Amino acid sequence: MSQGEVGAIMKEALSLIIMCASPMLLVALAVGLIIAVFQATTQIQEATLAFGVKILAVLATFLIFGPWLLNKLVVFTNNLLMNINTYIR
Fold it and tell me: What domain count does the chain have?
């Protein structure tokens, strides 16, 4: 297995990680910003409010994007396992 093949697999794996994590991270960022503005305007400084709402939002996002994420991971893993004989020479 050459360095180019290893690099290509690593690049594909890293892009898949970023693609799979970005929906949850973006939702957590947006919800955190909205909650922070809400807390600043109402002067409610309750830490559990921010964490609880973010956890629920990320869970809902995971439920919505779950099948798509699973499909992407299965395709990557299947491709990796189907070509394992060419990687191990």
Answer: 1
Query: What's the length of the chain?
Result: 89
pTM metric for this prediction: 0.81
5 CB neighbour count, 10 Å cutoff: 12
**Three-state secondary-structure class, residue 46:** coil
Domain around 64? 3-87
Q: What's the rounded Cα separation, in Å, for the pair 69 and 72?
A: 5
- Per-residue pLDDT tens over the stretch 20-50: 999 999 999 999 999 999 999 998 888 888 8
- Cα–Cα dist 23/65, whole Å: 8
